[in-house]
Amino acid sequence: MAASRIVIENCAIATVDANDTEYASGYVVVADNLIESVGAGSAPTGLENVVRRVDGTGHLLTPGLVNTHHHFYQWITRGLATDHNLFNWLVALYPTWARIDESMARAAAQGSLAMMARGGVTTAMDHHYVYPRGSGDLSGAIIGAASETGVRFTLARGSMDRGESDGGLPPDFAVESLDDALAATETTVDRYHDASFDAMTQIAVAPCSPFSVSTELMRQGAELARRKGVRLHTHGSETVEEEQFCKELFGMGPTDYFESTGWLGSDVWMAHCVHMNDSDIAAFARTGTGVAHCPSSNARLGAGIARVPDMLKAGVPVGLGVDGTASNESGELHTELRNALLVNRLGAHREAALTARQALRLGTHGGAQVLGRAGQIGSIEAGKLADLVLWKLDTLAHSSIADPVVALILGAAAPVTLSLVGGRTVVEDNHLTTVDEDAVARSTRTEARRLARITAAG
Is the pLDDT of residue 253 over 80? Predict the structure, then answer.
C-alpha cells in the first residue's frame, strides 16, 4: 500500500539536527508516521498520495517538545502551599496526595497531558510514585489517559518504602513495602513497555528520592531495570536540605550515594540536579547520566539555579521538565524553554549562559536523549518519527521579532497551528483534536473538589 503523505511548506524550519540546520523557508514531507524529507524551498513535485498540504507561511516548524519530568497527579492540587521550600511543601501536601484514587489519577493525568499537548509537547513522561493502599490501578489510569490524548509517553513507575515511621516524609499508608514496590514495578514493565522504534508507551523504573526510599529499593530497583532493559529515573540533588540528609544518613553526598547504589549510567536520568559541584558534574558526564532541568519548579520552591551551562559543556545530556503542577501551576513546557534561558542567565555565566537555540535543543533533542529516544525523535531528519509542531508567529505577539527561534523562545507563548505525533494530528488551530478540553476541565475540577473534601474529613 502506498504511503499517505502530508506536506508542510512555506515555513521557517529549525531542524535541531547535529548541525542546527535551519531554513528560512522550507518544507517537510511526512510519509505515514515518518519524516520522508526536509529541505529548503518548495516540496518536491510529483509526490503521490498526498492527503494534506499545509501552508506554513508565517510559521516556524520544530520537532515536537519532549517533557522529561512531571507528576501528573498534582494537577488536582495546584495552587496550594505556594510559599514553601521543598521539604515543607512535601510535608504540607503528602496528607492530601496520600488520598488519591484511580478516578483522581485519570482526571489529573488528562488535565496534565491536555495542557502539555496543546502547548506543543509530543512526548510526555510522568513520574508517579504515590500508590496508596486500595487506590486502584493508578498506572493503568495514567497510561490510558496518555493513549487517549495521543502523545508518546513514558511512565516512570515510582515507589516509596520509607514512611514517617522510618524517618521519611510521606504517611505510612501512602508507601509500599520493598517487595510490593518491586513486584508492582516489574508487572508494569511486563504489561506496558514497548521497545519498538515507534513505541507510544514505555516504562522506566523510578524510586522517588533518597529521602523517601530505602537503599535496598534503590539497589534492587536498578537491578530490576537493567534485567528488563528499561531506563531508570529518580530525583537528585534538588535542594541543600537533600544534600544534608544524604550526608547525615548515608555519610556521603547524593551523587556518591547514587553511584554506590548503581544509579549512575547512560540508562539513568535524574530530575533537578540543582546542587551539583564540579566532581558531581564530571561523574554525570563520565557515566552519561542525564538530567531533567525544571527551572520553573526550582524557582517556585526556591531550590536554586542548576548549573546547566556547565553540564552541557561537560557533555551531560540535559532535557527540560515541567515538573508537577503543584510546583509549576502553568503545566506546559513552553514556559520551561523561556525560563531555562532566563533563569540560567541569573547564574554565574550571566548573558552567556544559554542562547535561544540551546533552549530549543534542551526542549527537543536534549529531552529525546534523556529518554533514550534520540534515534527516533527530537530533530527533523529523514527517517525519524513525524513528531512535529507548527508554531504561528505572524500575530501581534511576535510581529516585530525577525528571528523565528528567538520569537518562539523569548516571545509570548505561540499558538500551535498543527501538532503531529507519528503523522497523526493531535492539535489543530490551537485546540486538541483527540480529547474534549472542556470535559477534561470539568472532570479535573470535580476530582480536585472531591480530594479536598476527603482530605478535610481526615
Answer: yes
